[in-house]
Each structure stands twice: as structure tokens, then as C-alpha cells.
Amino acid sequence: MIEVSKLSKSFNDLEVLKDINFQMRSKEIVVLIGPSGSGKSTLLRCLNGLEEPDRGTIQIGDVKWDATLQASAKKQAIRDMRLLTGMVFQSFNLFPHMTVMENITMGPMLVKNQSEKQAIELAESLLAKVGLLEKKHEYPSRLSGGQQQRVAIARSLAMKPQVMLFDEPTSALDPELTGEVLTVMKQLAEEGMTMIVVTHEMKFAREVANRVIFMSDGIIQEENTPDVFFAQPQTERARKFLRQID
Ligand code: ADP
Ligand code: MG
């Protein structure tokens, strides 16, 4: 489903991603962890077409972005990648002047030319799934952080992505609201969604991930099943990181 090879990205003099290689099967759940500043968000943003890598290739489904493509072909690949991937951010990013329903129906109507009726039906089924159907006419500011994040997940799913990318989706939430968001993500995983999740929730990683990828300094330092990774981290960096978050 995803194949990233020799991906590099710098901001000015700072090389944030250094020759990243990894592959993912359909329906796989990868948890991406590592210290702050190690390049996790930049990697997700490259997959979602929000950042343009300097070198390397990204293949998602049938779409291939390659640094050596012509500018117009790159642009098209980025548009396609954005449609294939749904992204959920730490900060929810709902449109504050739109109701929950408007937030969710906007993308399908504007980008996928769905009728309002179709878009509303889809939004209602997704809101039911995240347990927020009764909030459909509320504005985001009237919802808790956990509810806003569940709406953000529903909004992302409304675009029918093939891969969901979560960038610390619970980091901005009070601890008592974290569980409701993780429950929705777990359900999504059980339904067979392909997911990459950047998170500090190690219990979620242990329970839900098929694989843990540990990044630091712009490099994938190790990857393993959660069982092996948490019991026997191979590198000193990973051991140090796990001691710090314990
Ligand atoms: P992580 O998500 O693992 O904390 P990031 O990918 O956000 O790491 O950032 C990696 C490094 O890249 C950090 O040093 C960060 O300051 C830098 N960085 C990220 N985005 C930008 C940007 N748009 N411009 C300049 N530097 C950036
Ligand atoms: Mg980050």
C-alpha cells in the first residue's frame, strides 16, 4: 500500500529526514514514535502532500511521487496523494464558523462533487460511528476537545481515504478525553483501515499496532512488532526514549 524509498527533506541547513525507507501493507497499523524533533510530523506531512521532499520516492496505492518527475507530474501526484490519505492533527483543525455537519459535508461536496443529500447521509453514518450524531448542528466551540477530535476523524473519513495518518491525535487532550478518541481509532483499525499513528500512548501501540517504527534524528532507528520492540529495544536510543516516557 505504501512504499517510501530514500526520502530526504531539509529545512534550510537542517536535514530532517535522511534517506527514509519503509513499506506498509494494506490494513497494517504502524505506530511511529520517537523524540520531539525527530521528523515524525514531517514524514506524515510528506505522505499527505503537505511537504515536498527533496529526494526519493513515495508510492501510495497507484500513485507515485518521485523527486525526478516534472513539476506538473509532481503536482498531480501530490493532489492524488492528498485524496488517498486522511490526516488528523493534534490541534483538530475544524472550521470554527461551520457546524459539525458542514465541516464534514464540505469536502465530499466540493472535492468529490457529491450531492448535499449524499454528503449528509454519509456524514450522519460517520457521526453515528464516532458517537456524535446528536451534535450534528453544533459549532466546534461547543464541543469538548475529545468530541472535536472525533468530528475531525469523521471529516477525514468522509473523503474515503485509503490510509489514515494521525499526528499525535490525543496530545492536546485532557487525559480523561483521550480514551474516547483512542477507542474510535481502535475501532477503525479493527475495521481494516490502514493507519500510521504518531503517538505517545504506548498502551495503544502495544494493543493496536502491528509494527512500531522508532525514529530519531531523521532516521528510522528500528522497527519491530510491539511485543519485541517494547521488551527488547535493539538500540540505545530506543532504550533511552522508552525510559524517558515511562
Ligand atoms: P517531530 O514531529 O518528530 O517532533 P518534526 O517533523 O515536526 O518532528 O520536526 C523535525 C525538525 O524539523 C524539527 O527540528 C523542526 O523544528 C524542523 N521543522 C519542521 N517543520 C519545519 C518548517 N516548516 N520549517 C523549518 N523547520 C521545520
Ligand atoms: Mg510532530
From TrEMBL:
Record carries keyword Disulfide bond: no
Record-linked InterPro entries: AAA+_ATPase, ABC_ATPase_HisP-typ, ABC_transporter-like_ATP-bd, ABC_transporter-like_CS, MetN_ABC_transporter-like, P-loop_NTPase
UniProt keyword terms in alphabetical order: ATP-binding, Nucleotide-binding, Transport
Family annotation (Gene3D superfamilies): P-loop containing nucleotide triphosphate hydrolases
Keyword Protease: no
Domain ABC transporter intervals: 2-242
GO molecular function: ABC-type amino acid transporter activity; ATP binding; ATP hydrolysis activity
PANTHER family in UniProt: AMINO ACID IMPORT ATP-BINDING PROTEIN (PTHR43166), L-CYSTINE TRANSPORT SYSTEM ATP-BINDING PROTEIN TCYN (PTHR43166:SF38)
Protein known as: Polar amino acid ABC transporter ATP-binding protein
